[in-house]
Amino acid sequence: MRKFFLIALITLFVLPLTNALNAGDDFCGLKNTAFNTGEYLNYKVYYTLGVYVAAGEANFNVSLEKFNNRPVYHVVGDGSTYSFYDNFFKVRDRYESYVDTATLQPLKFIRNINEGGYKKYENVTFNKTANTAVTNNGVFKVPACIQDVISAIYYARNIDFNKYKPEDKIPFSMFLDNEVYNLYVRYLGKEKIKTKYGTFNAIKFKPLLIKGTIFEGGEKMNVWVSDDGNHIPLRVESPISVGSVKVDMMGYRNLRYPLTSMISLK
């Protein structure tokens, strides 16, 4: 069950594949039309072995800052288990990405995690001139169009999904743990989804998962994002190695557009 709730959110768009397509230049250079500075999203994570139990929460915040004299979106994702669940597996995770406002490409990525006593700190700086990623462990060559696990979510929210038809694959590249992964998600179309927060018109995806993580291999995860200009993640559902996990959006502030996809509150 290790770090399942932040992983579930982060893998909305960014699961590495064994036979993925290469992400080409057609998927670089998107402009931000989906989120605002000051946006806040809250998620509740449920774990089940038959009955769903609320195990923790994750929050995502966006602020406007400067990095090396360039304006950036500073996106922070924090995740933690509830106090009662800490007795089984305590999680305190923090992910940060500094994303160029002009290109939506990451300039810096920080991962600081504490998961059941396992601690890891990762600091990555992306050199866009040399196309390299400088980490705690060295310098690694990366494609010109590269994402980290946080920037990829916000980048993908800006994709014009109306250009695609059901079963189309949307590829891009991500750098994590000193490796470059070629990724894609499969677009499945639009449908209504009822969550713990309410009922929405949604866009649906089915990422292909690698067997061997806490998630089972194959296309078993389902993801829904709001079918409006915000494209905020609404729900993630997936079986995991033991039981299953469900993540629901439970709160938001400062969205760029009205949440017109919402049909009704719970």
Automatic annotation (TrEMBL):
Q: What keywords are assigned to this protein?
A: Signal
Signal peptide (from-to): 1-23
Asked if the Swiss-Prot or TrEMBL record annotates the protein with the keyword Signal, the reply is: yes
Give the InterPro entries listed for this entry.
DUF3108
This protein's name: DUF3108 domain-containing protein
Q: Which organism is it from?
A: Pinibacter aurantiacus
